Amino acid sequence: MWPALIIACLAATPLAAQDFFTLKGHGGPIMDIAVSPNGQVATASFDNSVGLWDTRRAMWLEGHRAAVNTVQFMSNDLLASAGDDNSIWLWSLASGEGAKVATHTAKIVDIARRPDGKTVATASWDATIGLIEMSAQGTAPDEKRLRGHKAGVNAVAFSNDGETLYSASVDGTIRAWSYSDNNPISTVIVKHGFGVNELIINDAEGWLAYGATDGGTRIIDLQTRAQIADFTLERRPILAMAYDPNSGHLAAGDGQGFIMVIDTNRMRITHDFQASRTGPIWALAFSQNGQNLLAGGIEDIVYSWPVATMREHEPMAGEQRSFLEKPETLANGERQFKRKCSICHTLTQGSARKAGPSLYELFGRRAGTVKDYTYSDTLDGSEIVWSAETIDALFDLGPDHYIPGTKMPMQRIVKQIDRDDLIDYLRAQTAQKED
Ligand code: HEC
């Protein structure tokens, strides 16, 4: 009798609950959050994976070869994600199976869904916008590129009727593209000057909101392009924005860890909350009923606060993250590891969903052999055995030269003394521990 009751209680805990809660499981910072029309939550992480959350547990969608920057629900069965590996993937929500559908020549930082659900737009730092038409199953999607911005594109959004696409760029402008033309051309509708990071379009109410690197937080009339309101504070940059059409709440998160909530019906700030003591807000999304605000940043945890009582709950990053510790308090080897490796590797047993494998018992270990980690084809079955010499060569030459094809990002440690100290530190910290 009891077990049945317990199951019923668990099932009755949807993510949209009005309580404060956290979602734990990612192995790196949270870069984006999306909420589907039926309340499902998807997260993009620096750990190279997408989390698809069912109450408090995630199904992990693995395929990206670098940090995932953005996620977007396309339909009841389809999720899109894109990231630092320059590629966009589509995933079936039912099976969790995914496939790469297109690539840019630089990282992709935002995805927009056309309201017809058949087209995705991608914003890339290669200064182009990709338009991908979903085709009938089995055939390759049709792809088009929009050129016009003079620097990386940070954000894309469609109007409700799907006829206009808006884009915001590092070049400091927002452009509008007439979507129905075969070769859409664009006009600059906002010249902000500093890079524009975030864009929210509300054509039902006739405005657009944007957030910029200089902290600029403005609402502009879509018809006249006149400024309706300016919520710019002393804080910058603006890194995340979200809008809930039911309540009219607009949220903006910044590099200093604050989240501001604006009531757009009255054009007034209603909440201003230091959500993180030690890091930026990279991801924001409202729950489906608009009552909670979900946020992510440098921690590997998603926080969800009821908007009305945000200030009464625990903020993010209560503990200082190790890679943010004061560098002068650490010995050189430890400092090298914390600053250059710890975001992707653990030193203890278990890779903890980080972007790279655990380095536990690294010395004497064959490359590519940690059981709970999926390596690139290059490292899988490699002949390399890790020792002071091979680790030294790895960072003297750089992973891209020492093991071409690896998914470990390119980096070199130029000074011999830094490599030596790092290796000594690794040798001490990765040794087998008796418990
Ligand atoms: C941004 C993430 C990232 C950072 C930072 C990083 N690595 Fe890696 N590392 C990886 C990934 C991903 C792999 C797996 C590569 C593959 O499968 O091709 C890897 C693999 C390795 C391996 C091979 C492990 C094995 O089991 O074969 C070693 C050794 C290693 N890294 C050491 C380091 C050290 C030391 C640093 C810091 C100087 C570092 N890494 C920084 C992501 C990272």
Topology of this protein?
Elements (H helix, E strand, L loop, with lengths): L1 H10 L9 E4 L5 E6 L5 E5 L3 E6 L2 E6 L5 E6 L4 E6 L3 E6 L5 E6 L4 E6 L5 E6 L3 E6 L8 E6 L5 E6 L5 E6 L3 E6 L7 E6 L4 E7 L4 E6 L4 E5 L5 E4 L7 E7 L4 E6 L3 E6 L4 E7 L6 E6 L5 E6 L3 E6 L25 H9 L47 H10 L1 H4 L13 H15 L5
Helix pairs in contact: 2-5, 3-5
Bound molecules: heme C.
What does this protein look like?
The protein has five helices and 28 strands. The chain has 435 residues and is mainly β. It folds into two domains: 15-312, YVTN repeat-like/Quinoprotein amine dehydrogenase (Methylamine Dehydrogenase, Chain H), CATH 2.130.10.10; 323-430, Cytochrome Bc1 Complex, Chain D, domain 2, CATH 1.10.760.10. Helix 2 packs across helix 5 (416-430) and helix 3 (388-397) packs across helix 5 (416-430). It binds heme C.
Overall mean pLDDT: 89
Number of strands: 28
CATH architecture of the largest domain: 7 Propeller
CATH class of the largest domain: Mainly Beta
DSSP helix fraction? 10-25%
In DSSP terms (H or I, runs of 4 or more residues), the helix count works out at 5
Q: How many structural domains does the protein architecture include?
A: 2
What is the fold named in CATH at topology level of the largest domain? Methylamine Dehydrogenase, Chain H
The biggest sheet amounts to: 4 strands, antiparallel
Portion in beta strands: 35-45%
Describe the global form: globular
Uncertain stretches: 1-17
Strand order of the largest sheet: 1-28-27-26
Our measurement of the CA-to-CA distance between the termini, rounded to an integer number of angstroms, reads 40 Å
Which ligands, by name, code or SMILES, are bound? heme C
So, the CATH homologous superfamily of the largest domain? YVTN repeat-like/Quinoprotein amine dehydrogenase
Indicate the radius of gyration in whole angstroms: 23 Å
